[in-house]
Amino acid sequence: MGKTILVVDDSASVRQVVSIALKGAGYDVLVGTDGKDALAKLDGRRVHLIISDVNMPNMDGITFVTEAKKLPAYKFTPIIMLTTESQEDKKRQAQAAGAKAWVTKPFQPEQMLAAVSKLIAP
């Protein structure tokens, strides 16, 4: 059984591209359409890593990361932000919330997989 990664993005095409790359590398994938949906998916099941967009409707990625880190089961789960944002203050906010890495869109799947493998192995 592979490690499970939760992918959170309001773009169906981004979720699809990321999911295909992760599954091809041997990971199991859960998806969330925004921060609220993703929090509902964090129902105690084992999630080894979270990849989250920053700008999403209903609940943005930084708020989602902050809320996820409050849950004891996910306090130490590594998080990668996958976003078009490149502003340093957003990066600092995400890091303060608990994000461990930052990948800027557009990206090559290999870039994202490299960031994933730095935090967890398949």
UniProtKB/TrEMBL annotation:
Protein name: Two-component system chemotaxis response regulator CheY
Alphabetized Gene3D superfamilies for the sequence: 3.40.50.2300
A single BP term in Gene Ontology: phosphorelay signal transduction system
Cross-referenced InterPro entries: Bact_response_regulator (IPR050595), CheY-like_superfamily (IPR011006), Sig_transdc_resp-reg_receiver (IPR001789)
Keyword Phosphoprotein listed: yes
Keywords assigned: Phosphoprotein
Residues covered by the Response regulatory domain: 4-120
Taxonomy, superkingdom: Bacteria
Presence of keyword Phosphoprotein: yes
Residues recorded with modification 4-aspartylphosphate: D53
